[in-house]
Amino acid sequence: MKLDQQGVSIRLENCSKTFADGNRALQPLDLEIRAGETLVLLGPSGCGKTTTLRMIAGLEFPDAGGRILFGDEDVTRLPIEKRQVGMVFQSYALFPNMSVAQNVAYGLKVQKCAKAEIRQRVDEMLQMMELSHLAERKIDQLSGGQRQRVALARAIITNPRVLLLDEPLTALDAILRDRLRADIDRLLRSLGITAIYVTHDQEEAMALGDRIVVMDHGRVAQIGTPKQIYFQPQSDFVADFIGQINAFEGEVRNQWMTLPGGRLHCPHLADGEARVYCRPEDIELVDMDSVDAHLQGVVEQTQFVGDRNRLWLAGIMPRQVLVESSGRVEFAPGQRVGIRVRSEKMIALEPREPIRSESVREVSPC
Amino acid sequence: MKRTPSYYLQLGFTLLICAFMLVPVLMSVTAGVTENYFKGISSGLTLRWVQEVLSIYSDTLWLTLKLALATLAVNLLVGVPAAYVLARSKSRWARLFEEILVLPVAIPGLAIALALIIAYGGVQDLRTSWLFILIGHVIYTLPFMVRAVVAVLHSIDFRQLEEGASSLGAGFLRRFFDVIVPNCRGGIVSGALMTLTLSVGEFNLTWMLHTPLTKTLPVGLADAYASMRLEISSAYTLIFLVMLLPLLLATQWNGHRRKAQARPAVQTPAPVAKGVTS
Amino acid sequence: MKYTLSGRWLRGEQSARLLLLLLPVLIISAAFFLLPLARLLVISFEGDQWGANYWQALTEARYLSSLIDTLLLSVSVTLVTLAISVVCGLFLARNEFAGKSLLVSLLTFPLAFPGVVIGFLVIMLGGRQGLSAELGLMLDGTRWTFAYSIAGLFVGYVYFSIPRVLLTVIAAAEKLDYQLEEAARSFGASRYRIFRDVILTGLKPALLASGAICFATSMGAFGTAFALATDINVLPMTIYTEFTLGANIAMAAALSILLGLITWLVLFLARMLSGADASPAA
What we know:
The complex is a heterotrimer. By secondary structure, chain A is an alpha+beta fold. Helix content of chain A is 23%, strand content 31%.
């Protein structure tokens, strides 16, 4: 099913949000969402992602000076019921007093569609979402995954200009989450609708987003495709927040960085204090007597997770270094190992900023 | 499960208390349909006393019904919206007002009635009208209605339900009637039953507020207890109990229903559930 | 993420709408409750001297004894009702047997009886033609009556209070954590100690709350005393007599204020102490 109305582009201009208690939940923000793309707002709780989503929805209004545009239309002061958005809430907000079919039909009923048309469109929608057999059920008779599908169906049946999803998978258990993530991905692609998806789960963000906006303390930390965010983080925060990462920090002289556990070859760095990052899967384990074993550490802890081993090494940096290796090789705590990091796998941050800048005031979870 | 002596001791005590609650009611009911209570049931069963009560006191019956329904109507019309506002507002003023609103529950009805008479007793048209009693009943029962609804609203995430409805384009009135009211139906029903039960049996206020022309059933009962023979008092009490009975049954049923609903929702229901709901 | 401030989008015309919804109740409360109460307060201070009525109420034997009698009566009704309800409530909450729900229904259906009817039921039990009179005739040839004294009032108030308190105790007992008792048993605590330290402690909020309601209703109840009539000198009757027979409205007002203050204060304290809701509306 294709929607009659393709999604609109959305522009936020200078949108900030200060709550009545003086909490600045969102610093002035400019953001452009292209028509038809899926944009993920990602960040820890209290980072402003949900506030941003609720502003786009019309559930919060930006502070004076902010503007929100759907296409060319200024919707800044329009309340949610006039914005033609579809929204999927974290706890779904399905109406317990209505059946599945009535929930899905509600938006059309409000729009005063003809009865026959409502019935037809609801039938189609239920069929598409594989909910037909549940049409007459009450909401409290549904499983979490079924509720989630009803919430989606209810949100998209009215052909909204944009689909807003507020952590729609958080309430589900891990296995279901994986499956529904794939379902949502397929649905968003087939609809071609503009979608904004809020999550704190970076894997979810990677899997679903055309672009990801990483947010921290009410600011945008980085905007980019999943690959850009993962491989070219622009700040310590992003590097740290997306996946797991090791930081190497020390004095570089003649392309070599001196570390407690040996030396690290950094041909791309100038002399002086520097820091580079490296993903655990990009660190190679080498034999202790190999010429490449410039860095040496002691296995402190191992964790076998099936396809791979996770090793925490001490002695290389003051903090443990996390390395991932094939699951078939045995390691024991206390064992000495050598590691190598290829310079092309390193992530260097320019310009430097202190780790997790503390200068930004802590914003309480909204 | 093994039954200890202590079990039977407790059971016996509970049965004794049950007898204490039940026996006088049964005695009263019997007396109401006995020809001559002094002589006992052997004097024969009769509906004579009931008929006599109906001929003397039937107007109290109608007034009581009228008052109860009018009180309910007022409570529904003003109490449910007020409960919604109180549940959604977080301001200190709302909390303060909630305290004031439930104050009549903590103050004896006699004091409230006295206050009403002092303030409005001089307004003859009001003083002699049944509306004066209605005012008293509303003041006394409104807190029960409001709190029953507020309690339900607090137990459901009605803000998110409302946000859900508004995201689908529903304006305020639609949200209120499509989402808020149906989802606090349990609280509204509880509050309504409470209102009816309290209004039908209200005496503390009503005795002070009534006039010879505006007697309610409990007022008539007090009258009968003071001046009529035991059989008539009993028959009158019997009529009152019959009036209460549907309310009592409805309250019990409502309690069971809500208890059943409060159980955690089934996550993966069996397919048969479809037949139950359609 | 909880939006405690999600009312924000309702600013402006929205809060006006909320006020509009609240307005009828505001008017009713102000006009028919707050204003009359204020008048009552003002009148209670009328008289030769400021506050003389209150001074009189607390010193003159007639009023003071009425106040003390009412307090004693209410306290003993509360204690006896709580004791009965704890025994029956625990028993009903912890045992399953055929007919249990019927038993609970029978014990609690008088919940809806007004005081005046309960007065009549007490007459059926302890009046001149009542059960105890018959029993007395059988046993020693005299009619045993207790209905027309403060004992009759006591029986009536206990009758009135049992359903309410019992329901609260059953609900609280069902929520008690059995593991606490099992833990206490594992330490070798005696049955008495378990009852005192675990069960009663667990029930305390419920007992405080329902006890306070029981006390407050006993203080202010009027119907039962009225039905039993004769010479029961409890505070509501004194107020009624002052108002109708004595036409001493100022004194009646002062006594009403005192009565209201006592009941409100007890409910308030219980609410503070138990942390639970000690209002009869709960």
